[in-house]
Every structure is written in structure tokens, then in C-alpha cells.
Design goal:
Length: about 230
């Protein structure tokens, strides 16, 4: 971590102060650690990333726990994780099933998170400084859903003209109907904006903004929606 360069932005604006008041509880810490791909990966989360300081929301680990708290407890009826319910309910279950190996790294600034697939050798997800410090708590939760979706599907199109993600570059999804990582990402943000609980109105507005940004920029064919 000594080589990572980052600053900690306003933790009220990012939601880290709000969610940080809940996560510092051994029951949550154990639940997250053993269910979301951290276990066995201590070497990726110590040395400044927060393993020795997991309630400190200025550090990557606690900021990831904040996102996992949001993911697990934002549905009014959060005990219901049925696939027939909205993604606000089952998103936490989906991420739990798919994220088996979660690693924290500095990154080179070109991506905020990345999914690596090794054919028969397994897969892992890396989270970088942009994930921890440029994204709000709800955006981090949606990114975890995004990367979890990559266990099943990659991107299949280039970004459309005018896209803030880089027009013409690969990394887009062809359409909403492709049900790729961008669709899961935006759908989670949409449901959180519409029906999220145990949160703040500011966090809901962040979800709406990011959801619309994705809808407008990450699909080769515009889905035709606006949140
Ligand atoms: Zn992706």
C-alpha cells in the first residue's frame, strides 16, 4: 500500500460515514469476510489496505464492507433473497455466490475494478483505488454486482459515439437485453434509487446519477430508459 497514491474524499458525500457506523461489528465483519471472497486473501488486504484496521473507513477494507452492508440490508424485506424478487433483494446473494476471490490492489488508474478469468483454473476480482475512493458506497455495491456478473458474461460490444467510457473502445454491452454486467450494474442502482431503505436521500441521488450515466454511455444500443 505504501506505493498506492490516493486521497480520501469527503466521507459524508461518499456515504462512508453513514455506513461506517454499522459495519464495526464482529458479526458483520465475519459474515462479509467468509462469504464474499476475502477468506484466504489476507495478503491482499493487509499492509495498509485495512486488515488490521477494518473499522477505519478511510481504508479500502472498511470501504468495501460498507458496500457489502448496503448490498445486504437495503431492501425493506432484506431477509427475502428470492430470485423472483427485485435485484435489491437478491443482489447480495448473487454476489455471494459469484465472488470467490476478492483482492485489493493499487491499480494503474485505467480501471476501478477488473474480473480475471483463467478458463479451468478459476477466476478472481481485483479492486483498485478508483473503486475505494472515487465511488460512493452505492456505486461500489453496484460495481461488485457488475464484477460478479462477469463470472457468467463478458462485455460484447464497443462503447457508442460520445460515450464517457471511450467511444469505440471495447467494454460495452450490446443491449439491455444481453443482460450483461452493465445491465446488472444499472438495474441495481435503479432499484436502490426506487426502493432502497436504511440509507440517505443523497445516496439515492448518487445511485440515480450513476445509473443514468451507465444507461446513456455503456450500451451500444441505448436501452431507451431513464431513471
Ligand atoms: Zn465490466
Amino acid at each position: 500500500m505504501a506505493t498506492c497514491t490516493y486521497t480520501v474524499p469527503d466521507k459524508n458525500a461518499s456515504g462512508d460515514n453513514f455506513y461506517g457506523q454499522f459495519i464495526c461489528d464482529q458479526a458483520y465483519i465475519d459474515f462479509f469476510w467468509f462469504n464474499y471472497g476475502f477468506n484466504g486473501n489476507k495478503k491482499y488486504w493487509d499492509d495498509g489496505f485495512g486488515w488490521h484496521d477494518c473499522c477505519n473507513t478511510s481504508k479500502p477494507l472498511a470501504r468495501t464492507f460498507n458496500a457489502l452492508y448496503l448490498l445486504n440490508y437495503s431492501a425493506e424485506d432484506y431477509m427475502n433473497e428470492s430470485w423472483d424478487s427485485p435485484i435489491l433483494n437478491w443482489g447480495c446473494r448473487y454476489a455471494r455466490n459469484k465472488l470467490n476471490d476478492l483482492r485489493s490492489k493499487c491499480g494503474d488508474g485505467s480501471a476501478w475494478a477488473k474480473h480475471f478469468d483463467y478458463w479451468i483454473f478459476g477466476s478472481h476480482v481485483e479492486l483498485y483505488m478508483g473503486f475505494f475512493y472515487s465511488e460512493s458506497v452505492v456505486e461500489r455495491a453496484a460495481t461488485l454486482i457488475h464484477e460478479a456478473r462477469h463470472e457468467d458474461k463478458g462485455h460484447n460490444a464497443n462503447f457508442p459515439s460520445g460515450s464517457v467510457f471511450g467511444a469505440g473502445n471495447s467494454g460495452a454491452d450490446s443491449s439491455w437485453g444481453y443482460k450483461g454486467a452493465w445491465m446488472y450494474d444499472a438495474l441495481y442502482l435503479w432499484w436502490f434509487y426506487a426502493a432502497g431503505t436504511r440509507t440517505t436521500s443523497a445516496m439515492k441521488q448518487r445511485a440515480r446519477q450513476r445509473g443514468n450515466l451507465i444507461i446513456d454511455n455503456a450500451f451500444a444500443t441505448h436501452p431507451g430508459y431513464s431513471i
